[in-house]
Design a protein that fits this description.
With 256 residues, the chain is α/β, with parallel strands linked by helices. It has two domains: 117 residues, 3-Layer(aba) Sandwich (D-Maltodextrin-Binding Protein, domain 2); 99 residues, D-Maltodextrin-Binding Protein, domain 2 (3-Layer(aba) Sandwich), CATH 3.40.190.10. It is 34% helix and 23% strand. The protein has nine helices and eleven strands. The strands form two sheets. It has a six-stranded mixed beta sheet, sandwiched between helices. It has a five-stranded mixed beta sheet with strand order 7-6-8-5-9, with helices on both faces. Strand 1, helix 1 and strand 2 form a beta-alpha-beta unit. The longest helix is centred in the N-terminal third of the chain and has 15 residues. The radius of gyration is 20 Å and the shape is globular.
Length: 256
């Protein structure tokens, strides 16, 4: 949800007490997690009588936006490496681990090209392959780490059709028949608008280890107690069930 503010000059003085402004939270959320976070946000809005705005995009871009504006309350990147990378700047405060994501191979429905559960399938010459861009989003950064560990990152990059900015564009490329195989976040294959068109080929957890999802309070938040209640709700049984319903591992590593 995008909120646009316009500056208006008053034409008359209002009589009586000024209305109490509604409390607001601003959440910077990585593309892959925006669906469960949006569902949770709607529940918290009703429970707390507040307004929640969600800014979605690539994890790197979101951090830079928060850093520049010094506005907002929560940062939810798709990779814990962003917290490690920017912790020294002092903008990222307390956090909770709300669940885990995991890389998987995504293919067209029915797996017509018979892709196996092996990351080296990305080197098959008969397949059009795509991965994420490590410079723009968490899925690309995670792919780089996994493929470097396997020793095939440069080879995959060289033969990739293109490098997608985020998980959404990886899924779109498959659905638009621009690629046969993508290394993407597992959860994206369970989203309602993807599950009819895509299948997930799971990778062994020793190869593709589950990635913690850290919901991080921004140190310049003006609504810290309210932000903590939002964080607590994500860890509640209701919040955890929502994450599982979208294909994520919950905080106990249980999965759909």
């Amino acid at each position: 949800m995008l909120t646009v503010l316009f500056l208006c000059l008053p034409v008359a003085w209002a009589e009586g007490p000024a209305p109490v402004p509604q409390r607001e939270l601003l959440v910077y959320c990585g593309t892959t997690m925006v669906r469960p976070i949006t569902e949770i946000a709607r529940m918290v809005e009703k429970k707390e009588n507040i307004r929640i705005t969600i800014s979605q995009g690539g994890s790197e871009d979101l951090y830079q936006s928060a850093k520049k504006s010094r506005l907002g309350d929560l940062y939810f990147p798709g990779e814990p490496a962003y917290r490690s990378k920017y912790q020294h700047e002092g903008l990222l405060g307390e956090y909770v681990t709300v669940g885990y994501n995991q890389l998987a191979l995504l293919v067209a429905k029915g797996n017509p090209r018979k892709v196996r559960s092996d990351v080296r399938e990305l080197l098959r010459r008969d397949l059009r392959v795509i991965i994420g861009n490590a410079e723009s989003g968490s899925v690309g950064l995670a792919a780089q780490k996994l493929l470097e560990k396997t020793g095939i990152y440069r080879k995959v990059v060289e033969r990739a059709v293109f490098l997608a900015t985020d998980s959404r564009n990886l899924s779109l490329a498959l659905k638009n028949n621009e690629a046969d195989l993508a290394l993407n976040w597992r959860a994206t294959g369970f989203f309602p608008d993807n599950s009819k068109f895509l299948d997930v080929v799971d990778l062994d957890t020793k190869t593709a280890q589950p990635t913690p999802l850290l919901l991080i309070m921004l140190t310049f938040s003006h609504q810290k107690e309210l932000t903590r209640r939002f964080m607590d709700f994500t860890l509640s049984p209701q919040g955890q069930a929502i994450f599982r319903s979208y294909g994520f591992h919950d905080s106990s590593l249980r999965v759909r």
